[in-house]
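User: C-alpha cells in, sequence out, please.
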C-alpha cells in the first residue's frame, strides 16, 4: 500500500496537523479543478458553538457529488476533506485504503482514503477533491471538515468576525509587503507563521481555524515565567481520535509580526511526531480563539498571508 501525506484538523479543544507516518513515494494533495466560472465568490459561513457563549469555529454547507447538503467545519489546519462515519456511509464512501498518520501525542492514527469527488458550495463547483473518512463522529452538528486550502486556486479572504469567505481570481503579480502581506512557511497546504509565544523564541506556528483552542509546545510553555508543571490534564478530541494535553493558565499570547493575538484558553500538547515528520520544531498552533477577531487573507500561490484586526 502506498501512503501519501495527509493532514486533518477538527477538534473540541485543540486541532492537530496529521501526516502519513511512513510515506512511500509521497505525493502532494490532489489539486481541485474549478468547474464553475473563474470569478468572485462570496460564501456565507455560520458559527459553531460548544456552548451558548463558546464559539468554536465556522462551518459552511456543501454537497459532495450532488448528494445531500452537509455541514463542514472550515479548517485551515486540514489538507483533505474529512467525512465522519455517518456521512461517509451516506455518500457510499466507507471503503478505502488505510492511512497511517502522525499527530498529537498518543492519538489514534488511522483513517481511510476514499477517492475524489466534486464539491458544490452555492454556485461554486470544484472537482477532483480528495476525500478521507474516519470511523467516528467528529462534532455535534458537523458532518465533516473542509480544508481552507480547498480554495487555494483563489486569493482567499476569510473575514471571521463577519463570517464571510470571499474568493477572487489571483492578480497577475504577487501582492507586495506594502499591502500588508508577509511570507509564511507552506508545507503541503499547511501554513506556518513565525510567532513568539509570550517570552519564548519565535518559531513556526500553524494557522488553524478548525481548532477551538490554541496549543503550544512544551518548550514554548517552559519559556513562560508563569508556567508550572502541575497543570490540569485535559483530553483533546481530534478528527482521528483522542490525544492528551494540559490546560494553561490565562495569559497566553502569540506575537505575529505587528499583531498580538490573545490565545486564552490554550493547552500544552506534544508536537514531537509532527516535528519529526516536517523536520522542524513547531512552536504552537494558532486556533480559532486567537483568530476570531481577525480578517485573514491568504495567497496560497505565493505563500503569503495578511492579517487585519477588525
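Assistant: Sequence out:
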Amino acid at each position: 500500500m502506498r501512503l501519501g501525506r495527509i493532514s486533518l484538523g477538527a477538534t473540541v479543544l485543540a486541532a492537530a496537523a496529521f501526516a502519513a507516518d511512513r510515506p512511500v513515494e509521497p505525493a502532494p494533495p490532489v489539486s481541485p479543478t474549478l468547474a464553475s466560472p473563474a470569478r468572485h465568490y462570496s460564501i456565507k459561513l455560520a458559527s459553531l458553538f460548544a456552548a451558548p457563549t463558546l464559539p468554536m469555529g465556522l462551518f459552511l454547507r456543501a454537497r459532495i457529488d450532488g448528494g445531500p447538503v452537509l455541514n463542514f467545519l472550515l479548517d485551515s489546519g486540514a489538507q483533505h476533506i474529512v467525512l465522519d462515519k455517518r456521512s461517509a456511509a451516506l455518500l457510499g464512501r466507507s471503503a478505502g485504503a488505510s492511512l497511517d498518520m502522525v499527530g498529537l501525542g498518543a492519538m489514534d492514527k488511522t483513517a481511510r482514503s476514499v477517492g475524489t469527488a466534486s464539491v458544490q458550495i452555492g454556485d461554486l463547483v470544484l472537482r477532483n477533491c480528495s476525500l478521507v473518512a474516519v470511523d467516528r463522529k467528529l462534532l455535534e452538528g458537523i458532518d465533516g471538515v473542509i480544508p481552507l486550502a480547498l480554495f487555494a486556486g483563489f486569493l482567499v479572504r476569510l473575514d471571521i468576525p463577519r463570517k464571510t469567505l470571499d474568493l477572487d481570481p489571483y492578480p497577475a503579480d504577487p501582492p507586495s509587503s506594502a499591502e500588508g502581506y508577509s511570507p509564511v512557511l507552506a508545507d503541503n497546504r499547511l501554513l506556518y507563521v513565525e510567532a513568539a509565544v509570550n517570552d519564548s523564541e519565535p518559531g513556526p506556528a500553524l494557522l488553524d481555524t478548525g481548532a477551538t483552542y490554541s496549543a503550544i509546545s512544551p518548550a514554548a510553555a517552559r519559556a513562560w515565567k508563569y508556567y508550572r508543571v502541575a497543570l490540569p490534564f485535559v483530553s483533546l478530541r481530534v478528527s482521528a481520535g483522542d490525544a492528551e494535553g494540559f490546560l494553561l493558565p490565562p495569559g497566553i499570547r502569540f506575537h505575529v509580526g505587528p499583531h498580538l493575538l490573545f490565545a486564552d484558553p490554550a493547552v500544552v500538547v506534544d508536537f514531537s511526531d509532527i516535528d519529526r515528520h516536517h523536520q522542524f520544531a513547531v512552536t504552537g498552533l494558532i486556533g480559532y480563539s486567537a483568530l476570531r477577531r481577525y480578517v485573514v487573507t491568504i495567497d496560497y500561490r505565493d505563500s503569503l498571508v495578511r492579517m487585519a484586526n477588525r
